[in-house]
Amino acid sequence: MNAIEKIHSLDAFGSRPGLDRIQRFLDILGNPQDKLKFIHVAGTNGKGSTCRILSSVLVDAGYKTGLFISPYIVDFRERIQINNEMINEEVLEDAVARTFPILEKLRAEDCVITEFEYVTALEFLIHAEAECDVVVLETGMGGLLDCTNVIEPPLCSVITTIGIDHTAVLGSTITEISEQKCGIIKSGSAAVTSNQVPDAMRYIENDCREKGVELHKSSDVAVEVVERSLYGTKLSYNGLELFLPLVGDHQIENAKTALAALEVVKRSFDISDENLVNGFKYTTNPARFEPLSDNPTVILDGAHNPNGVEALVNAVKRYIGTDGILILGMLADKDSLTSVKLLREVFDTVYTVPVNNPRALSGAQLGEKCRVFFPEVKVFDSAFDAFDEALDRAKTENRPVVIAGSLYLAGEIRPYIISKT
After folding, report:
1. Residues 6+ positions from 110 with CB-CB distance below 8 Å
2. Which of 102, 184, 306, 409 would you label with 30, given CA atoms 20 to 30 Å apart?
3. Sign of the dihedral defined by the CA atoms of residues 305, 308, 310, 315, in that order
């Protein structure tokens, strides 16, 4: 097996919250995470975009910047980056060759390391050996028991928008989920939060108070929207004009959250106004309301839970109108019914497709849910076939196409869309 095959072979062990297993593994590796400085980011939605903005600005400021995100869209190595470039295959192969035998030895001792735990450990090792100045670290799920939370107090802990997701693990209420997310907030550090619903904000404020941690809020960042378009947003901040090539009002909130975090990070790193301008301008985040064609308009979005879908619905209303064809694929463990209800507000036509993931709903299963709400539902066994038909229709009927429901679907179909448009 090559490195990526070995990593994916661990998927069979599932996802299990807890820090004991990864800590044992990291002890053997010499605790590489202790050699790094982190910006730690948790939340239900907005983590990826916020991380990308932070990394882009830090790279422009000349710092060797590690980035750890999930899931990937097309290539696994997107998850571990240095200076916004995927690590090369040789680095990954070498790290796996040195560490996989340790993992197998631990398994023989009944300490089973999961895929996410292993990838997190690889990230710590690779970024430490590369001598990164700073790492932007995205949690996987939750925060308190997420295996990224083995780190010492970071430069700052960032909590992006909290909503209902992963209820089987994180809890069924906003307060319960907030408790898990706030687990990354540590005494001796600073915290930053996006705008939150009242229950979440209340919990964050109390948690910071109890831990003696100063809290910075995105709502205190003075940003004005100068111009919105399908290709990005112009913002005015402290006399600067920032262009962010990410679309939607939710990205404005992510930008404000990143700016609040950067104000904290500036205590440790030299970041100029020019770095802010360039860092924002060169930020990329595939499959987040990403325009892949303008004739006809084709939008790819990884929205997969009600919060993300709500942001998608708002962006559709603002930028492309409500006559589009929706291609939808979702995982069975997501709140697909609420998402479908929300999507009905802006789409009449939906093509349901499978997602290449063992947790996915089939096109037929998702189609049954959609038929309750949509006038026109067509079930496909292939996302590629669905896109071919939608593209032909979009050209003849002058309608946009939107693909949504899962980042796994986005990763599967993105190269195909680019090849066809």
Report:
1. none
2. 184
3. negative
Tokens of 193: 């939060």
Half-sphere CA count of 188, side-chain side, radius 13 A:
4
- CA torsion angle 210 216 218 223 (round to 10): 160
Structural contact between residues 218 and 183, judged by C-beta atoms closer than 8 angstroms: no
Residue ranges of the chain whose pLDDT lies below 70:
12-14, 165-172
What are the distances in angstroms from CA 233 to CA 143, 210, 225, 255? 30, 37, 7, 10
What letter does residue 86 receive in the DSSP assignment?
A: E
Does pTM surpass 0.85?
yes
Look up residue 292 and give its two tokens.
Answer: 């892949």
Instruction: Report the SS3 class of residue 290.
Output: strand
What's the rounded Cα separation, in Å, for the pair 116 and 12? 11
What is the number of other CB atoms lying within 10 angstroms of the CB of residue 145? 15
Q: Is the peptide bond before 71 cis (omega within 30 degrees of 0)?
A: yes
User: In which residue are the tokens 């948690």 written?
Assistant: 207
How many whole angstroms separate alpha carbon 91 and alpha carbon 78? 13
Question: What CA–CA distance (Å, rounded) separates 411 from 43?
Answer: 22
Q: Who's near 210: CB < 8 A, 6+ residues apart?
A: none
CB contact set of 85 (below 8 Å; sequence gap of 6+): none
Euclidean distance between the first and final Cα of the chain, in Å? 35
Which residue matches tokens 């492309």?
320
Encode pLDDT of 96-139 as tens digits.
999 999 999 999 999 999 999 999 999 999 999 999 999 999 99
**Is the sign of the CA dihedral 70, 71, 72, 73 positive or negative?**
negative
